[in-house]
Amino acid sequence: MKFDSWFLIIHRSLDPIKTFRVDKRTFLVLGVGIVLVVALIAFGVYQYVTLHQENARLKNEISQWKAQVSGLNKKLSEVASESHPPLRIDELQVIREPKRAGFAARFWLVEGFPHDGPYTGTLAMVAKNEAARPPVYRVIPAEMKLEKGIPQQPGKGKPFEVKEKKFVEAFFDMTEGEIFQILTVFIFSKEGKLIQQKSAVIPKL
Fold first, then answer.
1. Rounded to the nearest 5 degrees, what angle is found at the Cα of 85, between the Cα atoms of 81 and 89?
2. How far is CA 130 from CA 28, 136, 196, in A?
3. Helices and strands, counts by H and E, the chain
4. Which one of 98, 119, 125, 166 has the fewest beta carbons within 10 angstroms of its own beta carbon?
5. How far apart are CA 154 and CA 166, in angstroms?
């Protein structure tokens, strides 16, 4: 006798015993269905975990890109500030005053970006004789501290405000025997950053 079923399901009750036969085909269909459901659930979990990891990776990459872009923007701003300063020194002249023991420094401060409004900051002028031993310096304003001829206290410089152009003039008194060779003008932003400097030869008498 050939059997085409694997097991019998028997229900017991007050009624006579009834038996139900489950054939191989039904069992296989149920088994395949269960396997497919389990596979779909596993695939869904895998997709969720994968997408979560990918999303975390993308967020991390975006954060790194933002940091790089921010760094590049900062560098570009610094380069732009150096190549196109907000203020420049034009027509710097050093003139000897025959009737006075000293010399005058004259120049224009010109805004690089006039549409941005008035530019404020501080300036200092330093007369140098670095051939002397020790080197000799004279600074305006006199209360500014120098280190090797470079002002170290921008906040103590002469304040200014420029709208498009501003003429600046200062006079250096000299005692007998004093000799200065170079005059350098230093321009500082209101934050104290050196944004421009320019030098000129001091003519001899």
1. 160
2. 101, 6, 21
3. 1, 12
4. 98
5. 19
The CA distance from 77 to 1, in Å, is 93
Residue 84: DSSP 8-state: S
Q: What are phi and psi of 51, to 5 degrees?
A: -65, -40
Query: Mean pLDDT in runs of 10 for the chain (205 residues)?
Result: 49 53 71 85 88 85 77 57 75 84 90 79 92 89 90 91 90 84 93 91 83
Q: What are phi and psi of 17, to 5 degrees?
A: -60, 130
d(CA 37, CA 16): 37
CATH class of 87-201: mainly beta
pTM of the entire structure? 0.59
What's the rounded Cα separation, in Å, for the pair 199 and 89? 10
Complete DSSP assignment for 132-197: SSS-EEEEESTT--EETTEES-GGGSEEEEESSEEEEEEEEE--TT----EEEEEEEETTS-EEEE
**For position 151, what pLDDT does the model report?**
92
CB 108 within 8 A of CB 168: yes
- The Cα angle at residue 159 between residues 156 and 164, in degrees rounded to 5: 150
Q: Which of 112, 87, 107 is nearest to 184 (CA)?
A: 107
C-alpha span between 31 and 38 (Å, rounded): 11
The strand pairing partners of 158, in sequence order, are 123
